[in-house]
Design brief:
Length: 646
């Protein structure tokens, strides 16, 4: 989970300490959604918009097709134009107060790609990533990456620009979404029309951040958080998209006085020992924010190679600086802090390490042993960091002092990404959306069953293109396998919620990935499988190809004497036990005590029995976080995990 937190937090601090680019104060003649190298959606009117002086007339032309609009009182103009035949390239001409020509435009299918860090994960960090990048020469695939931007009210202007897919462009600017790229690669090779991808996702973010406020108000689950967003909006100031940064602004003296600065005079700070430190500062048991500083000496010249700093596990969260430069932060208590250092952060001779820690639990703060705290130079030399530091108290946060509503320091507030990253993209014409998210909502599966349909409805209303396709990634295996079938369900329930949404929301589909995953890494590298299974959903349901697109799916249960017969849909090519074995089936009687079951394939059904359950009433399959999921169909697609005990 370390990679998840760092990826999200790197965004947060980059956004926090730069001027937000996507706001309503700079309104361009043409929205950045339109530019050279773009893909226009085929088969439907394409909305095109921008801003000009109220009353100005704007004309758009492409391949002899023309349309006009007039800028309204709010300066916005918008029109719809019929696209030419699929293919290209075309030139789009826009005339009004200015003349613009957008070149090398293709007409094909555009897909919106949303979610959190597993959708955001770039091609480079996937299996065979370097080889995949080298082969990513696909001029018929075009890429648009929406810059991360939380907003407390609707933003107008997204930031990003279209690129032709190539080994260079797929890897630059942090890299393009691997799932989206592999999805497009399979779609484009199958249907032979251009494909445009709009990557609109951000690591660590929950679904409520991508949902409109009216929908959330109707749910009644987020009223307190929405009220806080409104309070902060009325107050003015930075729009971080999280609660903790505003709390720091209000209460952290160290932030106000720049205690991270390399030249700060800390001679009046107390000597403390790290690990520890909070007891030395008089707050061993209570919530507190403390700052710690340490001077270290490094060799001249510095050895070449990437350096890093390790601080072990910290409760609750840290913000770490070297020589006044921010180098990392995390709010994930269970993650050992390990931050890579950019070139130029370290220097020969004197260096200052400064760490802000918000402790919330008794004996919290630095939780690891001394050898976990070190600075590793490029040649592997380790500089110990445990021992003598200097520290001071910034915030004594014991009751009745206010605490933040949440400690995440990346955008998690309700609706802030809907406002900042979805609304500015609409009503861009699209074929549909793919969605890889759920990790941040995994502890609220029942709520997710209502939340995700609400979000899908918001997106469809916003884009105004009917019930466009919405394809959902069922979360892969994660965490370690349980030997017994009666343990905690873990991620099984969020997968169930995703499956229910895909089954009950019109024009939706589910890409099952339960046969992929890593027990120790929330970012499994098998993203090609994920993208291609999403593509199967689209090829079968949207493009009408007669192909299997989903594995065996529970249909019904039939009670037999001493056994259960499970009926399936999606048994294309018959049911198959991978490796010749069927595993992860369990049964229970009326007492709901679960036992592993023997499973036998009979046609397109499976018969379950267990000597410990004389008359089974309920069945489960792959009902844990990391199951041995071996049931497939003859087309090689894994079964959807299920249970019959609701």
């Amino acid at each position: 989970m370390l990679e998840k937190s760092l990826g999200a937090l790197l965004f947060f601090f980059a956004a926090r300490f730069s001027t937000p680019a996507a706001d309503n104060s700079a309104l361009p003649f043409v929205s950045p959604m339109f530019g050279d190298n773009m893909v226009l959606q085929r088969g439907k009117p394409d909305a095109i918009w921008g801003w000009s002086k109220p009353g100005d007339t704007i004309q758009v032309e492409i391949a002899g097709h023309k349309a006009k609009a007039r800028a309204g009182k709010d300066s916005r103009w918008e029109l719809k134009i019929r696209p030419p035949a699929p293919g290209g390239p075309y030139t789009l001409k826009i005339d009004g107060a200015r003349h613009m020509e957008l070149r090398d435009i293709l007409v094909g299918d555009v897909w919106l790609c949303g979610g959190q860090s597993n959708m955001e994960l770039p091609v480079e960090r996937t299996r065979n990533g370097k080889a995949e990048i080298a082969a990513a020469d696909h001029p018929q695939i075009r890429l648009f990456k929406v810059q991360a931007h939380p907003a407390y009210s609707p933003a107008a202007v997204p930031q990003g620009h279209w690129k032709i897919c190539s080994p260079q462009t797929i890897a630059e600017d942090g890299g393009f979404s691997a799932v989206a790229y592999f999805f497009a690669e399979k779609i484009q090779s199958s249907i032979q029309v251009p494909v445009g991808l709009v990557e609109d996702c951000l690591g660590g973010t929950p679904a409520e951040s991508w949902t409109g406020p009216e929908t959330l108000h109707a749910m009644k689950d987020f009223d307190r958080q929405l009220a806080e967003v409104e309070r902060l909006k009325a107050k003015g100031g930075p729009e971080y998209g999280n609660y903790i940064s505003h709390w720091y602004d209000d209460y952290d003296i160290g932030e106000k006085k720049n205690w991270s600065a390399a030249n700060l005079d800390d001679s009046n700070w107390k000597p403390v020992r790290i690990p520890g430190g909070f007891e030395d500062l008089g707050v061993p048991e209570t919530p507190a924010v403390c700052w710690f500083r340490k001077e270290i000496s490094l060799p001249d010249p510095l050895p070449p190679g990437k350096a890093s700093i390790s601080l072990g596990v910290i409760e609750r969260m840290d913000t770490t600086y070297i020589n006044g430069q921010w180098v990392g932060a995390s709010a994930w208590v269970e993650n050992p802090r390990l931050y890579s250092l950019k070139d130029g952060v370290l220097k020969p001779g004197k260096n200052i390490v400064a760490v802000r820690v918000f402790k919330t639990m008794p004996k919290g703060g630095f939780m690891s042993k001394t050898d976990a705290l070190c600075l590793a130079l490029g040649d592997g030399t380790k500089i110990p960091l445990a021992g003598e530091w200097r520290g001071t108290l910034s915030v004594d946060a014991r009751p009745p002092h206010a605490l933040p509503l949440g400690f995440e320091n990346w955008p998690v507030m309700p609706s802030v990404l809907y406002h900042g990253m979805i609304e500015p993209v609409a009503p861009f014409a699209i074929s549909g959306a793919i969605w890889y998210q759920g990790e941040a909502n995994a502890d609220r599966p029942q709520q997710y069953q209502k939340l995700l349909p609400g979000m899908i409805g918001d997106w469809r209303r916003l884009f105004g293109q009917g019930d466009f396709p919405f394809y959902i990634v069922s979360l892969p295996a994660f965490m370690h396998r349980q030997d017994q079938p009666s343990g905690p369900a873990g991620w099984a329930q969020i997968r169930e919620a995703q499956a229910i949404v895909a089954r009950t929301v019109k024009n939706s589909g589910l890409a099952v990935t339960i046969d992929t995953g890593d027990p120790d890494n929330i970012h499994p590298t098998d993203k090609k499988i994920v993208g291609e299974r999403l593509a199967l959903c689209a090829l079968a349901q949207y493009y009408g190809e007669k192909i299997p697109w989903q594995g065996p799916t529970f249909k019904s249960v039939e009670r037999l004497p001493g056994a259960l017969r499970i009926h399936f849909t999606g048994a294309d090519g018959g049911l198959v036990g991978k490796g010749g074995k069927l595993e992860e089936f369990s049964v229970a009687g009326e007492d709901r005590q679960w036992h592993w079951a023997a499973a036998k394939i009979e046609g397109d059904t499976i018969v379950l029995s267990c000597p410990d359950v004389s008359q089974p009433e309920f069945a489960r399959y792959a009902w844990q976080s990391f199951p041995k999921a071996t049931l497939y169909n003859g087309a090689g697609l894994p079964a959807v995990p299920f249970r019959t005990d609701y």
